[in-house]
Amino acid sequence: MRNVRTVIEQIAATDVTVLISGESGVGKEVVAREIHRRSPRANRPFVKVNCAALPEDLLESELFGYERGAFTGAVSRKPGKFEIADTGTMFLDEIGEMSAPLQAKLLAKTGRYGAIVAATFSRLGGNREIRVDVRVLCATNRTLEQMVAAGTFREDLYYRLNVVDVRIPPLRDRREEVAGFVEMFLQRYSMKYGKP
């Protein structure tokens, strides 16, 4: 974890995209929030989108927004998460669960300037281009290299997202940290419930 902290310290002040990988529960979101907290964007929005929690059609409208009348039920304009995250950080959690068609759309909508930081897109049902300045952090519990080899994750998107790779080892490989976690949780819940 000292190596992870060192990488965070080295990259926090930059705008590089970061791929955070590790098993479920290792603290990928904690690492993403720490990168954001230490960055020049710390006082700007941190927007999290769980790519596994939303179906493909809903995920696209969540990311890029939509115009009134874009589809049945779109009764008013809605900004997407990329717009909400403008000047801040977008955290795409479980990016490995994103469908191939949406991977292509993410690549196309964010690829005009060669980096996700300067993304240009239009809302669903719209034709006005919107440009945002967003740092993108991604997380996955899957091995994207294997998915690329199997053809289930786009290679070009993988290389765009994986500028810096932060791999978090599972706690079973860091047993010396268990005592520190126990102490932290004891203090937290002791204070919360007013009991020793």
Write structural notes for this entry.
This protein has 196 residues and is of the alpha/beta class. 38% of the residues lie in helices and 18% in strands. The chain has a 5-stranded parallel sheet. A two-stranded antiparallel ribbon has the order 3-4. The longest helix has 16 residues. The relative contact order is 0.20. The mean pLDDT is 87.
Condensed summary:
This protein is of the alpha/beta class and 196 residues long.
Which properties best describe this structure?
single chain; 196 residues; alpha/beta; 5-stranded parallel β-sheet; two-stranded antiparallel ribbon
* Strand element count: 9
Calculate the terminal CA-CA distance, rounded to whole Å: 30 Å
Cα radius of gyration in angstroms: 18 Å
Mean pLDDT over the residues: 87
Low-confidence stretches: none
Helix run count: 8
Spatial order of strands in the largest sheet: 2-5-8-1-9
Assembly type of the shown chains?
single chain
Helix content: 25-40%
SS-derived structural category: alpha/beta
**Shape descriptor:** globular
Fraction of residues in β-strands: 15-25%
The main pleated sheet reads as: 5 strands, parallel
